[in-house]
Amino acid sequence: MSVSQANFTRAMMDAGQQVPDGLIDHQAQPAGRRFSVYRNNIAVSLTEAMHSAFPVIAKLLGKQNMDGLAGIYLRQHPPSSPLMMFYGEHFPAFLEGMEQLKHLGYLGDVARLELALRRAYHAADAAPIAPEALGALTPQDLMNTRVALAPAVLLLRSPWPIHGLWRYNSEDGAPKPEAQAQDVLITRPEFDPIPQLLPPAGAAWIRALMGGASIGEALEQAAAEDETFDLGATLALLLQGGAITGLDSKG
Amino acid sequence: MLDAAAHDRLPAAPGVGYKPQHFAQITADPGTVKWLEIHAENYMGDGGRPIAQLRRLAEDFAMSVHGVGLSIGGEGPLDTDHLARLKHLVTWLHPASFSEHLAWSTHDSHFYNDLLPLPYTDASLQRICDHIDELQGTIRRRMLLENPSSYLAFAESTWSEPEFLSEISRRTGCGLLLDVNNVFVSATNLDFSPQGYIDAFPLDKVGEIHLGGHDEDEDEHGHPLLIDSHGAEVVDPVWALLDYTLAKSGPKPVLVEWDNDVPDWPVLETEAARAATALERIPA
């Protein structure tokens, strides 16, 4: 009558399964409802974890729907590590795969934004350069410079207004989002990640920088995507966010 | 400047489970709280506010690192990635204490985010001792192992829990963390005497005592079923069990845990003050 951990977890994750034989109460009778404590603990704790990890998704869906989805999700994707700070990594794709949610096509990308904010929150610290270090460069040297970005810097591109949706459901008095594609830059000036809306082709420029391109090379790629690309405005967003942690002007 | 020597062991005084929302009050005026405990897994990110707060707190307080995710009682091998993360944390933080649970939480590479129960048999004893040897060898320090809250028992068990923990301590050299709320919860649920459990417990191996709140429910036969929730005040019978324990053990570090529905700081500090009173009135 030994109870394997495989049997235990199978019964814990599926209330339709019998409580394993060999689990008993104080009178050596079958444990019965006492086993529900474990079924309940995991469902409640992982559902709460999803609410705190995805507050905007929870607000968009409503508490009841979020509870229901979290319950399905935790059975399809139990945590793969004890680091609960990263729980929910498959949630964006999970949301996109739900037939009933097909009419809310933006949910997956909004969830990706919330995941990215959490990753940025726990990312390694890195000291930003002083903005004057860039100002000291000649225009020619500036174009040949490669930049190192802080580990907390993350980029998201979406066909949906994810920044607007996030703000509207996070900040009092934020404007109603309008249907449009939005690219978002996340920086963490100190401890709190800030999602910022990028101007046209800003994401192309930053992605090129992340890939090792010089400022000038990245500028060419951004201009090819959108000729109105504003280098000064996008660079200012990086500097204000403490995103640049090193310069390499050796060409 | 970090005065490491002053914080190299937990004082026989009240501590609390640290919650980030209390950071400002704790650093300004901790009241009777003399040490803090953190859950290891919440401080395994690469940086940011959690790590910065932890560095700051370690300047003022002796710290206890309490793991909730190693799955020492698991049938499978310990997760070597997680062992490495624990080693990294205790290496940079130099906590006064490291503790984990007599429980399992991981099976087949899934983490179930709960402290799950195990049978007390010769086979599970050997497995747990092997895991503790591996852990203590990896982090190069002695750990404390905590007694669980039980809602049910295993028909196959052949050891009593105090004997089981005592034998683990004897074989591995680990110390024990005695959670008196867990004793009260298990004793109520499984109909044994909590004082009898304390009498059988190797109190000389206890490096820390835990207190916490629990919820009340009942099973389908109407028998009380207490659930270790860490979401409320410590109840009077548990305070009485603390007095009973301290009278036998002498002064120990005593921690108040409150992890769910976390109250404002003054409420938690009041619980810590009550632990301070219990420590003060230990008969000489």
Summarize the structure.
The complex is a heterodimer of chains A (251) and B (284). In chain A, 47% of the residues lie in helices and 10% in strands.
SSE blueprint:
The complex is a heterodimer of chains A (251) and B (284).
Chain A lengths: L4 H9 L9 E2 L11 H18 L1 H7 L1 H14 L14 H6 L10 H16 L9 H4 L3 H6 L1 E4 L4 E5 L3 H7 L13 E6 L6 E4 L4 H9 L4 H11 L5 H10 L3 E5 L3
Antiparallel strand pairs in A: 2-6, 3-4, 4-5
Helix pairs in contact in A: 2-4, 3-4, 3-6, 6-9, 10-11
Chain B lengths: L13 E4 L5 H6 L6 E5 L9 H12 L1 E5 L13 H14 L3 E5 L2 E4 L2 E7 L5 H18 L4 E3 L6 E2 L6 H12 L2 E5 H11 L3 H7 L5 E7 L1 E5 L5 E5 L7 H14 L4 E4 L7 H16 L4
Parallel strand pairs in B: 1-2, 1-13, 2-3, 3-4, 4-7, 7-9, 9-10, 10-13
Antiparallel strand pairs in B: 5-6, 11-12
Helix pairs in contact in B: 4-5, 7-8
Query: Do you know the CATH architecture of chain B?
Result: Alpha-Beta Barrel
Please count the beta strands of chain B (DSSP E, at least 2 residues each): 13
The biggest chain-chain interface is:
A-B, 47 and 50 residues
Q: What's the CATH topology name of chain B? A: TIM Barrel
SSE pattern of chain A: HEHHHHHHHEEHEEHHHE
Number of helices of chain A: 12
Question: What kind of assembly state do the chains in view correspond to?
Answer: heterodimer
Indicate the low-confidence ranges of chain B by residue numbers: none
What does the model show?
The complex is a heterodimer of chains A (251) and B (284). Chain A has 251 residues and is mainly alpha-helical. Chain A has two domains: 104 residues, no CATH class; 127 residues, Outer Surface Protein A, domain 3, CATH 3.90.930. In chain A, 47% of the residues lie in helices and 10% in strands. Chain A has twelve helices and six strands. In chain A, the strands form two sheets. A three-stranded antiparallel β-sheet of chain A has the order 3-4-5, sandwiched between helices. In chain A, strands 2-6 form a two-stranded antiparallel sheet. The model of chain A has no long low-confidence stretch (mean pLDDT 96). Helices cover 39% and strands 21% of the residues of chain B. By secondary structure, chain B is an alpha/beta fold. In chain B, helix 1 links the parallel strand 1 and strand 2. Chain B has a single domain, classed as Alpha-Beta Barrel (TIM Barrel), CATH 3.20.20.150. Chain B is built from nine helices and 13 strands. The model of chain B has no long low-confidence stretch (mean pLDDT 96). An eight-stranded parallel beta barrel of chain B has the order 1-2-3-4-7-9-10-13, surrounded by five helices. A two-stranded antiparallel ribbon of chain B has the order 5-6. The radius of gyration of chain B is 18 Å and the shape is globular. At the A-B interface, helix 1, strand 1 and helix 2 of A face helix 2, helix 3, strand 5, strand 6 and strand 8 of B.
